[in-house]
Design the sequence.
């Protein structure tokens, strides 16, 4: 009897505390911050976070080109949440900053309705001319193996790339709890000084529906879109291998490529590879038939694929149906496209047991691609990520250097894949 009375008293005390201080599941805190683009990366930035409750619609983001730390009143600009979407048990707030200055650092802090402040973060807009140099990280397939996933994320924070290309399969079952953990782990991509690396995302087969990407990253509803960098320096085409390859998506791709002839570099990002490099995966003929001819016709330089959980990079290839040509491709060093991937951001590894005659190198380990690009050339390295916490951090001044202890994969064909501009 005494135990029951004590239990009732404890409950009443807890309820009284919640009434006085707010119910713990509706506190307007700020978490799971991520950055992305749907417009010009030189003059815009999309900032998304979890407000924890519907009251978060009144949260305010303060920003400035001067770092004021947590003195939010000192920031010259402020904007309230522009969109709030309840999805995957998160209240996903979106603020889309526009009319920013190219090649400029912006510092920001978010104030919750209860007065609590987020950490102070910052990002840098992309330069708006073709003479700039870009650092890019590309990969996919993190799934639920948190140790290698966190390791890869930690390396993102240390390499200080301009952005990440992520090819889908963030989680294994697309569940709310898994997504929350994914975003918690994504915090490891934020550098110690608060620098956030934006991410451009594609949908994978483990995202059960388009909304898992479009609502969590505020992309186009069909999850196919393009982003241009440095005026005509680079155009990235994000495609969706999980919906109809033909129809509206194919019409869009054909039109986008036709309008992009002036782009010096063209990259494609999508999930399922045309020609997987593991026997566990079947050939994707529908993707090959629809996209490979367009890639070749319009000079696609690099294609980033995922899904297979292997490591691969091809020589430049073009589609060909002549006898003796391997699985519909033949090497073409002058005008061919390089295909790379295929995942390994933490997902269960598979054997690289389906190489082709045009495969440059393949393997099976946790990795992503690190790409340095200017108007004349692209240099791409494959980075093993498991020792991330031993790797030194780069700074803004030396972010194209190779940090100490970084594991750059060096197959017999060489560590660096170099592409030369055709323009």
Sequence:
């Amino acid at each position: 009897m005494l135990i029951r009375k004590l239990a009732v008293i404890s409950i009443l005390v807890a309820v009284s505390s919640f009434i006085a201080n707010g119910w713990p599941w509706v506190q307007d805190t700020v978490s799971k911050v991520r950055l992305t683009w749907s417009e010009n990366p030189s003059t815009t930035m999309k900032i998304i976070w979890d407000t924890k409750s519907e009251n978060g619609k009144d949260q305010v983001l303060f920003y400035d080109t001067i770092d004021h730390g947590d003195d939010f009143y000192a920031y010259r600009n402020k904007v309230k949440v522009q969109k709030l979407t309840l999805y995957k048990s998160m209240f996903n707030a979106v603020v889309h900053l526009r009319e920013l200055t190219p090649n400029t650092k912006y510092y920001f802090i978010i104030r919750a309705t209860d007065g609590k402040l987020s950490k102070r973060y910052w990002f840098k807009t992309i330069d708006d001319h073709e003479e700039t140099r870009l650092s890019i990280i590309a990969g996919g397939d993190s799934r639920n193996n948190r140790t290698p996933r966190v390791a890869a994320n930690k390396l993102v924070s240390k390499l200080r790339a301009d952005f990440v290309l992520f090819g889908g399969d963030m989680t294994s079952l697309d569940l709310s709890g898994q997504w929350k953990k994914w975003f918690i782990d994504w915090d490891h991509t934020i550098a110690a000084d608060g620098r956030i690396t934006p991410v451009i995302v594609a949908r994978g087969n483990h995202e059960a529906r388009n909304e898992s990407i479009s609502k969590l990253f505020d992309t186009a509803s069909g999850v196919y879109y393009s982003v241009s960098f440095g005026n005509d320096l680079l155009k990235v085409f994000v495609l969706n291998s999980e919906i109809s390859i033909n129809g509206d998506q194919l019409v869009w791709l054909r039109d986008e490529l036709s309008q992009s002839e002036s782009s010096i570099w063209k990259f494609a990002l999508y999930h399922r590879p045309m020609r997987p490099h593991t026997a566990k995966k079947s050939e994707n003929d529908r993707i090959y038939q629809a996209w490979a001819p367009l890639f070749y016709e319009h000079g696609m330089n690099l294609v980033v694929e995922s899904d297979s959980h292997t490591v691969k990079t091809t020589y430049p290839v073009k589609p060909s149906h002549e006898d003796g040509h391997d699985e519909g491709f033949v090497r073409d060093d002058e005008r061919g496209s390089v295909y790379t991937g295929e995942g390994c951001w933490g997902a269960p590894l598979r054997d690289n047991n389906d190489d082709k005659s045009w495969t440059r190198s393949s393997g099976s380990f946790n990795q992503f691609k690190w790409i340095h690009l200017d108007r004349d050339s692209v240099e791409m390295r494959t980075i093993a990520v498991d020792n991330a916490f031993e790797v030194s951090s780069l700074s803004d001044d030396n972010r194209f250097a190779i940090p100490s202890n970084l594991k750059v994969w060096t197959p017999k064909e060489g560590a660096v894949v170099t592409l030369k501009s055709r323009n």
Remarks:
- Residues 5-26 have pLDDT under 50 and may be disordered.
- The helical segments are 2-21, 146-159, 176-186, 211-217, 248-258, 285-297.
- The first helix runs from residue 2 to 21.
- The two ends are 85 Å apart (CA to CA).
